[in-house]
Amino acid sequence: MTTMSLPGERALDLLYEMIRIRRFEEKCVELYSAGKIRGFLHLCIGQEAVAIGVMQALTQRDAITATYREHGHALARGVPMNKIMAEMFGKASGCSRGRGGSMHLFDKARRFYGGHAIVAGGLPVAVGLGLAEQSLGQDGISVCFFGEGAAAEGEFHEALNLAALWRLPVLFVCENNGYAMGTALKRFESQTDMCRHARSYGVTSESVDGMDLAAVVNAAQRAVDGCHTGGPRFLECKTYRFRAHSMYDPELYRTSSEVEDWKRRGPIVTFSEGLRAEGFLGAQKEKEMEERVAEEIAEAIAFAEAAPLEPVEDLARDVTTPGLGEVQ
Does domain 8-309 have CATH number 3.40.190.10? Predict the structure, then answer.
């Protein structure tokens, strides 16, 4: 792990953002167990460096799609934590008005076009957003985050093919955590080299250590620069999720020793070690970071608790059009 390519203050800010995501999701586990959050809950604990690293290369003009494991992406994009927490609670004050929950965070103002519950579902949307940028002569790019399991879906190949054919400004970010739900990559893919998939469509690709924040920051900037000048780019970030696929996952497909080994080289641990070694991080600074995060999370929970549920009379809003589909 190296932080030498990142200025000290910037590196501290990025560490803070990773801690912010980690503590938010850890609190969500508690709230889920308490029945405050319901439905599905997929955590990106262990993968924080990917979301934070890639977002550093983007501008507010750029559009983003993500998977159902998207809390970290939404926070990194700037979606307010209180709005996300209210959405997790199913409240009308949530970023998706309480209708999407954990898997469908959405913020049009920040061009965050949703978590997608269908595997690979966000890739065609990202291609469409990239096509819009190109057709309108605008200078933004489209970025889609997805897992390596998406490579088994037709949308993955269709999206890469069209993006390459039309030379669209789309950045494909594969968060390769080694497991598609509960199945190891090598057990369901004959071709486990994600970059080779991209290269087969003529898309320039790069693989990077997704646990190394500085490496992700640098690789993402190269990829984004390439999208602006030479069409689509593919970035594979080799990472690992420390928690189960979802809160319903018994996690029988991997050993605890494997998980613990990855935790020892997790992004927060290793990045913090690098900052300490370079003299940028001390115990007091770490304490201040944790206190700031804890305060923000407490405020977000209070906001979500106090937020109203959607009125029953509004439940059909945006679902049906008055006069259409009515039984005669």
Answer: no
